[in-house]
Amino acid sequence: MTEPADAKAVRAAETAVAAEAPDGAGASIRAEHLVQRFGSGRGAVLAVDDVSFELDREPARIVSLVGQSGSGKSTIARQVLGLQRPTSGAVTYGGKDVLRLNRKQRSEFRRNVQPVFQDPYAIFNPFYRVDRVFWTAVRKLTDLPNKRAADEAIRDSLRAVKLQPESVLGRYPHQLSGGQRQRIMLARIHLLRPQFVIADEPTSMLDAQTRRGFLDILQDFRVRYGITTLFITHDLSSVHYLGGDIMVINKGRIVEQGAVAEVMAAPSHDYTRLLLASVPAPDPDQRWTERIDIGQIR
Amino acid sequence: MTTTLSAPKRTAGRLSLLRRSPKLTIGILLILLLVAIGLSAPLVAQAIGGGQDPTETAAFPRWLKPSGAHPLGTDQYGRDILVMVCRGVLVSLQIGAIAGLVSTVIGVIVAFVGGYLGGFVDTVLSFFTSILLVVPTFPLLITLSAYAKEVTLFEVGLMLSIFSWPFAARTIRSQVLTLRTRAYVDLAKTTNSRDLEIIFKELLPNLLPYVMVGFATSALGSIFGLIGLEVIGLGPAGVIDLGHLIFVAISTGALTLGAWPLFVVPIILLTALFAGLNLINIGLEEVYNPRLRSVSGV
Amino acid sequence: MSDALTTTAAASVSDGVATGTTDPAGAGRDLDVILDIADLSVAYATGSGDLVAVKDVNLQVRRGEILGIAGESGSGKTTMAATLLRLLKKPGRVSGGTAQFFPGSAPEGVDLLAITGNRLRRLRWSSLSYLPQGSMNSLNPVARIERQFADVILEHAPKRKAELPTLIPRLLQQVGLDPSVARSYPHELSGGMRQRVLMAIAISLEPDLIVADEPTTALDVTVQRVILQTLADLSRDSGVTIILISHDMGVHAQLADRVAVMLDGAVVEVGEVRQVFHQPQHEYTRRLIESIPKLAGAAVGVNAGHPVATGEDDR
């Protein structure tokens, strides 16, 4: 319907990316039969139920993992980041299990796979100025030769996400807005230039306008730096705005996947249809006419 | 809305901590006053004894009434009570400091190792902590003191801390448990920080208030544990703290002989000590525990 | 929820003398208006002076309508709701204005900002009720649902005690819940079910006006649709007036009869929902509507022949 204004520019630049990308660095992330069970016995919850997918380095894409709360999508994000040990199955990076990497491999993995988390408030240690987020990253994950080069790179990255370096550096997290904090996380990504970004509900706590700016930056990163993003969300309109691929998850299982445009135009699974039908259209002339019953009782 | 409103309040937070919590301020002032009294002991001794030790046996006549030369009078051996009280305050504070420090260090280590690593280690440590928490410590202290007649101040502090560290450990562990799931800990992990770095740089600074609460609680417990022993005449010989003075007052019938200061003054000082440490405890909790914070916008 | 309300009510003991119940302009007022907010301003006292959260708001709520209040976080919409419900906490305070409320029980009108004590207490729930954002905090975690109903109902209408056994199941059914939910504890229910319980409590005393503050924000999109459906049913069946506060323009488009848009504490635009969406008068409204990416397949309906059984998730 309404195509994002800069969609054309995105498409045009896409071809350029393929040529520009470093050759050979094609390590991909594979999720292989991931299962996550929490608790045991009668109270056990199967949060992730045999989920497999692959994130490729080239061509850079945005892959959205869409599901409602409790669908297991955040658990998958933690598994992919190596923060949560799956009950069975594995996440591999460049063919190796991310939980069994040696020191060198882990450092390589961390350099190339970076998160953006949901809560822009909890992501900062309240004890420190926000600068520390960059400096720890510089120290641990980059080869910047000296302090001056690092400082320059940090400022560049802040400007790249449309933040004034002077207005955020030296501040404490509580002095910044949610949108600013989430942009700082994007600046951190810009600084590190990973191959993959695992973004777990990064926009769910942002206002509509701020959200759109955030999504534009993700798209920009893909086009400019060839960053593949696993975008985990419950918000179908963001997914539509971003384009790329979609995986729909319900109760720990991926029920449908494919290109966003195709899935949204012709969803093949009932659950996908239900999700799409439930998004309130921002148009009083497109009010819901039929009733849905999701059999919620017990 | 909450964010914009709370921002200016928290900006001023770090500096006006004391202004925001009168309890904390009064507590700190009380403790400082007691430290000043304790530290003034040599000066007071000089002023009253004039070069000689005013607490030597028969330095002055027995049971002198309070007067200009002896503001609090003398005891049954002719020792100056004011000097004894000042020294007693210092000894009590030292016992509290030693026992508090040792308990806090043990408590912090146990809490962090258990709380952060979790699993089997945590189960064992928690079990051990809980056992010590439910063991009736007072009879055990009595038994221990029977074996320790000639002990130094430091040894007494150490002995007392054996029983007070579980309190510190429990307070801090529960906080570690809530903090270790914070997004900034995950971010540190994905920045390739090591566990020890996360414990010391991410978690510990945020736990300082709780560490201080643990310290104050342990110090308080130790000081009063020792007084409990001394009042019933089981205190270690050679350690003359405020509790010992009270014991002397009771056992010699000082009150009936008109030497009331020997009984009353240590009790007043102990009350001040108790009030001071408790006010610090409550004040810190109020400032740092958001659930106890009374006002927080809409 | 009921706790918060009763404590606030109990805090002000005196039954105010100058309660401003008589409206000098009352004779000429439009009978269709149930709530007339005039020049309402609310400020928060901060260390560095006052922070104005609501600025000179003039707004008429018509009887029986669903009035949507839109705006982003920080626009003052939640503060305004709290003010109308008299739940505004320090350091916030009303710095000016009135809010004349014309419930069935007091057709001559009362100023919501001036009444205190017992009068306020009587008005709450029975004339004016509150549907908060659905979260665990809104229900008492250690009481069964039926007791939470009973608490609210008996507090405000003690003589209805005999009716309770039939009233509670009826209310639950009215919001699409099974009557057996009455025996549950809040933690046994999903987010959507808890939100419906809150809705049932809000309508239990047949109020004239419900203020719903982001009632679906914490919920999944499918659950949100069902909740909105239920709200629309309530409005249609019982004629209750609803003030619906939401940051989601989609929600307003689906549900509201009229929409008021707030920006920095002021109402910048009020109008019929179609007019606001199709011919927004204010630049900000236009931006607000534009910032929602529209779904290509918005017209995709649920396959009517296939009832979709998904079940709400419990977490």
UniProtKB/TrEMBL annotation, chain A:
ABC transporter domain mapped to chain residues: 29-276
Any one Pfam family match given in the protein's UniProt record, by short name: ABC_tran
InterPro entries documented for this protein: AAA+_ATPase, ABC_transporter-like_ATP-bd, Oligopep_ABC_C, P-loop_NTPase
Keyword Transport carried by entry: yes
Name the UniProt record assigns to this protein: ABC transporter ATP-binding protein
Keywords: ATP-binding, Nucleotide-binding, Transport
UniProt source species: Nakamurella aerolata
A GO MF term: ATP hydrolysis activity
Domain of life: Bacteria
Biological-process GO terms, alphabetical: peptide transport
From TrEMBL, chain B:
PROSITE patterns: ABC_TM1
InterPro entries the record matches: MetI-like, MetI-like_sf
Keyword Nucleotidyltransferase carried by entry: no
Domain of life: Bacteria
Presence of keyword Transcription regulation: no
Keywords: Membrane, Transmembrane, Transmembrane helix, Transport
Entry's transmembrane regions: 24-45, 89-117, 123-144, 207-227, 239-257, 263-284
Biological process terms in GO annotation: transmembrane transport
One Pfam family cited in the UniProt record for this chain: BPD_transp_1
Gene Ontology cellular-component annotations: plasma membrane
Domain annotation ABC transmembrane type-1: ranges: 89-281
Record's bilayer topology term: Multi-pass membrane protein
Main location: membrane
Localization terms from the record: Cell membrane; Membrane
Annotated family: Belongs to the binding-protein-dependent transport system permease family.
Protein's recorded name: ABC transporter permease
Lineage: Bacteria, Bacillati, Actinomycetota, Actinomycetes, Nakamurellales
